[in-house]
Amino acid sequence: MNKIIEKEFFSENVVRLEIEAPRIAKARRAGHFVIVKVGETGERIPLTIASANAEKGTITLVIQRVGVSSRRIADLNVGDELTDLVGPLGEATHIENFGTVLACGGGVGVAPLLPIVEALKKAGNKVITVIAARTKDLIILEDQVREYSDEVIVMTDDGSYGEKGLVTDAMEKVMQRENVDLSVVIGPAVMMKFAALCTKKYDVKTYASLNTIMVDGTGMCGACRITVGGKTKFVCVDGPEFDAHQVDFDEMLLRLNGYKNIEKEAEREYLDKKEKN
Amino acid sequence: MTVTKEFLKAEREQSWRVDIRALMKNKERTGLTRVHMGEVAADERVKSNIEVNSGLTKEEAMAEAQRCLDCPDPTCISGCPVEINIPKFIKYIEKGEVLEAASVLKETSALPAVCGRVCPQEKQCEAKCFYWLKMKKEPVAIGHLERFAADFERESGQMAVPKVAEGNGIKVAVIGSGPAGLTFAGDMAKLGYDVTVFEALHEIGGVLKYGIPEFRLPNSIVDVEIEVLRKMGVKFEMNFIVGRTASIDDLKEEGFQGFFTGSGAGLPRFMNIPGENYIGILSSNEYLTRINLMDAANPLTDTPIVSGKSVAVIGGGNTAMDSVRTAKRLGADRAMIIYRRSMEEMPARVEEIKHAEEEGIEFMTLTNPIEYYADETGRVNRMKVQKMELGEPDSSGRRRPVPMEGSEYMIDVDTVVVSVGVSPNPLIPSSLPQLETTKWGTIVVDEEKLQSSIPEMFAGGDIVRGGATVILAMGDGRNAAASMHNYLQEKLNA
What we know:
heterodimer, A: alpha/beta, 2 domains, B: Fumarate Reductase Iron-sulfur Protein, Chain B, domain 2, FAD/NAD(P)-binding domain, five-stranded parallel beta sheet, 16 strands
């Protein structure tokens, strides 16, 4: 069950895995996520589904190595199995013909953005997609995004590819140039925070897909809770997408760091052990 | 499924029962004192996860069994939601035939070793014991004896697998593998159904695994009871969320004809007071799941836990007691219960409160949190609480706690566990728009049959009750199995 049938490195620390999961492949919609656990003593972590092939019975996940659990997943090889995989979870993205949509992905956030871009395009929207990363090597899935976008703007912090600047620079430019009906942003929390501030200036309705800490992912624990419009919401069952203008990103950023020191320490130990083997 | 009086009477008239009764006069029996189960000393047990209660020896159990009068009208059975034939199993213990006693338990209970540990017997069977009702004496220690018989059988290596009727080929699905679902699965397997239990988490057992701590209910004991169900032919699918991974319609296409939902009370409630989302403030579900299901306190596991030196647990239920006693075991210098009513209204079991007190838990009753404060990293470091006094009774019949103006004060804390109740898990209802639910999100069922507005779906446990006990959930599982059996057979014969 849940065998890895394909593995591809996008860059040193970003890997794409295609995994056998026939039921999830059939049931999932754009915006859904899964919970993955590797090893009997592993941690349950949420990952947004990047794409799925219902006929083949597979789903694709894109993982960036940022800690022990993501490294454990990224270190698996073709033929290995995920110990536990459950989903699809969360509410699917609401798709309709909004008009012009500005879709923005930062780093590995481009992976979960791709199925939304595809669905929006198929629903008849004009889709302008901004993909951004620190440097050229970290720009992923550009060709696939192009396939479903009317226009693609690539941004890198260091100018090594596309235009030099932040995702918000490109967003400003588009919104000054033409009317945008909806924006969708997925990426690091800090990027989504500033993207939300940017679209707010132009009064463009914006959805952000949030990636908080979770344990069960089914509404049971409340680890993923955030404040949206002054109310506590659970990302796992109420989200993962929320009106970005209502999300308290500062609180979310603090909560994401809740286990930072333990995580750093655990990652060091994991890497030391790996080196010794 | 009510056990008839005639049946119980006939059983009581069996010669072995008559002989046992004749061994001692009732006066001698009532003159005996109730056994006391051994406990690991408080200062010792808080250093590890060792089970607090150490069980009875065979001699102790046989002596306690002598106290049972084997009444002509065994009122104790009416106090048991799964109607265990209590006098019969106790008389087998008196006779020294403990394996027989265990098989009596398993006639009606899928989880006797669990019930013997976590049931509030003092409010159920033991509250209906003749000793208690008529003589105002300590009741027969039915719970201790149940645990003894189940443990004896397990440790004997001769676990009996209950008899299963010949397979009828009818597939039924169970949603959730907690006490309601496991009980339902066991009863349906006995009736010959092809039973599959679907569980969202990666382990079977539901609240028995993620909720109740090792020191009260070791996971290994739950696993043994699950193994018996497997041997009875029950299939288990982990990592499967009905309504998500596959819909009810998908499962119908795959041949499932009946569904039992025992998906539990999922969503933790918070109090919506300022600062409640600071780091270090968690629901009891999260705190206990990290420790019990994910084994986060074990350095060899990946799941992290921060459990501080000064831990406040908000609430007065069994889950609050489990959380605060866990905090103590994880090294808290101060582990506090903060509860807005008084000790008298506290819903936790008397035994849990007693054990907590012995372990040095501080009880701050008539106290309610009103705000949390954090350091610059967002980690909670203080909380403001307010004293309460009891006013007029509220809808629950308990006296309503009323805030006392100007009584606020601060407590230094580094971890807060919020244990003020749960709401039903919305995953099943939200995937079935035609399913009738209450405004609280619980599934509406026929009180007797436990049948929902979708005729082939039955439901029980917390998804119906909102928040109850393991044994009530088990009772629901048992009743739902009997009703679904009737429903499916009627349909088949129509």
